[in-house]
Amino acid sequence: MNCPMCTRWQDEPELRVAELEHCYVQLNRDQFFPGYCLVFAKKHLTELFHLDPATRAGLMEEVNGVAAALAEVYRPSKMNYELLGNMVPHMHWHLVPRFIDDPLWPRPIWSEPHEEKTLNPSDYQEAAGRIRRALGL
């Protein structure tokens, strides 16, 4: 199996935010949308209905907790949640804080190309630390 999400935690340690019971949380390398994170299931799954009810509830609470932490840190106008899996068939959410003054507001983040915004390592660490603190970790 060649799944980029299954190895992402090991492959990109500089983007790590938190390891939770059911999922991993990492910053998206492209921070064009400040605070953009990926939350991905530890197990290789493709659908919520593949999980037993207790695990599904636990996973959704973790996604919700990350969204709340991002809202606390970034104070967005709206939090976008996206769970697709068409291109990468491993359950993962794109959590994207959105702001009324962002260049693509109110359109979807993929509505038009944008120049990728990468940060220096200390800025990724600082952002991850702020999110971890908001998570209570």
TrEMBL record:
Pfam families: HIT. Residues 3-105 form the HIT domain. It comes from the Bacteria. A motif (Histidine triad motif) lies at residues 90-94. InterPro entries: Histidine_triad_HIT (IPR001310), HIT-like (IPR011146), HIT-like_sf (IPR036265), HIT_Hint (IPR026026). GO terms for biological process: nucleotide metabolic process. PANTHER family: ADENOSINE 5'-MONOPHOSPHORAMIDASE HNT1 (PTHR46648:SF1), HIT FAMILY PROTEIN 1 (PTHR46648). This is HIT family protein. It comes from Trichloromonas acetexigens. The lineage of its organism: Bacteria, Pseudomonadati, Thermodesulfobacteriota, Desulfuromonadia, Desulfuromonadales.
